[in-house]
Structures are given as C-alpha cells and as structure tokens.
Amino acid sequence: MLSILRIIFFAVFLLVTQSAYSEDPKQVVKKVYLKKERERYFLCIDFDEKTSFTPRVHTLPNGVKVLLSFNREVAAPNARKISHNIIKGYFFEKFSPSSLMFIVALKENVTFISKVYTKNSIKIGFSINKKHIVVIDAGHGGKDPGTKGVSGSYEKNITLVTAIELRNELLKSNRYKVFLTRDNDEFATIEERMEKINASKANFLISLHTDSNDDKNLRGMSVYTLPNLDKLKNISDTSSIDSKSYYKTLSQSRKFAKCLVGYIPNACRIKNRPCRNSELKILKANMPAVLVELGCISNKIDNELLHSQYFRTKTICAIKYALDNFFGDKKNEADSLH
Ligand SMILES: [Zn+2]
C-alpha cells in the first residue's frame, strides 16, 4: 500500500514539475550593466517583470558570482557585454534548466557595500579599494657596494634582489602602488634618494640593508626607526620641528617595526632588542619609515640565508603582513553580504 502511495506521489510530482517547465524556455534577463555614481559602482541586472527569482550573491575581493534560481525554465542569456575598464572578464550562462550563473571578474580589489533586490532587478554596489603607496629603498648600489659578506658577495646585490621581490609580492596583492629608489645597480647620493622618496608622496618607506659586524657570531634581523626628538644629535635646533607631527609619524613607524618583528618566522633569527633607534638620514623622509637590516652578512649562516630564495620569501611575506596590518587589513565586507 505504502509503495503504491509512493508511486502515485512520484507521478503527481512529475506531472507538476513537467507542467511547470512545459512552457518554452524564456529569455528572462532584460539588461545587464554597470553604472557609476560618484566613487561607487553598481552592477545591475534587470529581469522580465513576469519572472520571479531567488538570488544568491557570492562576493570576492575582486569579483562577484550571482546564482539565480527561477520559477520556470529559462533560456540561456544572450551574450551581453558590459564594457567598462574596471571589468576584467564576464561570464553569464545557463546553469540548469531553471537557473543562471553570472560571474564578473574585476581588475581591482573592491569593497562591496550594498545589494538591493527588487521584484525585477538586482543592484550590487561596491567601491574600489584605495591603493597604499610604498617606497622600497634598496640600500647602496653602483660604486657603493655596502658591506661585503663572508662569501664575497655585496650588500647592494642582496638589497636589490630583496627589493624587487618585495615589490612583486606587494603588486600581486593589488593593494599597493610601489616605487623603488633603484631597480638596477646604480649609485645615488642620499640627497637624490631623499628627493625621489619625498616626491613619491608615499604612505610608507622601507629601506633595506644588511648588517656586518666584527663579531662573526653576531647574526639576526633588526629594524630601525628615528629616536625621540630629544635624542636627535644632527639637528642643532629641534624646536623648528613640529613635535606633534614628528611623534605621530614616529609612532606609526614604530608600530610597523614592532609588528614586523612579530611576523618574522621562528626560522629566521632576530637580534636582541630588534626594534632600534638611529638618526639615519633616510628615516627623515616625510612619511613613516623603517630601515630593515635583513641579517648579518658577516655571519656564515645569515649570509647563506640571505642568498636563499626560501628565506627571502619568508622575510618578504613578513614585511607584507606587517604592511597589511599597518594599513588595516580590512577583511572584504563582502562576506556579510552572503
Ligand atoms: Zn647598508
């Protein structure tokens, strides 16, 4: 008896679903477009008014996926091109007889700010994340080789390769605009470097160096920031300095230094008192700044590590994490839109 009931139930179910989809597949999407209102973008899909749908929106830092379930069989959407320079790729297709999938890849990282569904439209709002500007200064260069390592290599080459790799890593994240004070083996005076750095109007400066010491056992990384105002020796009249802005910039630099030291993986040695103060000229740029001594090339182990891609990648990741943290690594608010 029970099995007969089951068969009847199944037959009725089939009839109902069949009749639901017995009409011809319908073109339900009327229009897909992107519109800009001030600094905000809105991705809009308009549907046929007689269609009801259930949307599911999944957002990514640089894209959005929309799944649409309809109460009827739908036709594959006509190819509609959204032409806008922020769109990297676009994909709209029939996912099942009664659902469509819509994917948009964007060229920039964005923050999703709203989603509005009406009876016949979807409007997803987002804004482009502002890029932070970072200057990376590869210490020394050209006729100034810096210190010489135990294996005969020069500081200027290690700082250059690390600077280039760090730049590439930061660019990959799409969150940063990066300037290098040099990207080849060229010499620049400190004044020329400072001019480039200050002209970049960057939000942060990282100067890369390697240490050397008479004590060949000494090894590890350290991070330098400027000292407190009363400890500045090379400025005769510190009263000309705006102490409020000096300390504001200094506290930002120190916040980064502390954070960076925290991110350095256990595999890499950190010096005792790794956050140090020094009145280095480069740190007097008009932005928060640190000078990172990546290790001691006078020490055999550090010298090997500094030449190893594995170690450099770890250090570079630590610097990137510290920058993300410094600029407030806002998790894409997209998650809350699900
Ligand atoms: Zn140096």
Structure overview:
There is one protein chain. The protein has helices spanning 2-20, 155-172, 190-199, 243-263, 300-306, 309-326, and strands at residues 29-37, 40-47, 53-60, 63-70, 87-96, 99-106, 110-118, 121-128, 132-138, 176-180, 204-211, 221-225, 270-277, 289-296. It folds into two domains: 23-130, Immunoglobulin-like (Sandwich), CATH 2.60.40.3500; 132-228 and 243-325, 3-Layer(aba) Sandwich (Aminopeptidase), CATH 3.40.630. Helix 2 (155-172) crosses helix 6 and helix 4 (243-263) crosses helix 6. It is α/β, with parallel strands linked by helices. The chain has six helices and 14 strands. The structure holds zinc ion (ZN). Residues 139-140, 146, 155, 209 line the site of zinc ion.
Which features would summarize this protein structure in a list?
338 residues, Aminopeptidase, 2 domains, 14 strands, four-stranded antiparallel β-sheet, binds zinc ion, elongated, Immunoglobulin-like, disordered C terminus
Total count of helical runs of at least 4 residues: 6
* Form type: elongated
Instruction: Please write the CATH class name of the largest domain.
Output: Alpha Beta
Secondary-structure element string: HEEEEEEEEEHEHEEHEEHH
Label the CATH architecture of the largest domain.
3-Layer(aba) Sandwich
Kindly estimate the percentage of residues that lie in beta strands according to DSSP: 25-35%
Bound molecules: zinc ion
SS elements, strand count: 14
Structural Rg: 29 Å
Please, what is the average pLDDT?
Answer: 87
**Physical arrangement of strands within the biggest beta sheet:** 10-9-11-14-12-13
In the CATH scheme, what's the topology name of the largest domain?
A: Aminopeptidase
Low-confidence parts, pLDDT < 50 over ≥5 residues?
Answer: 14-20, 330-338
Major beta-sheet overview? 6 strands, mixed
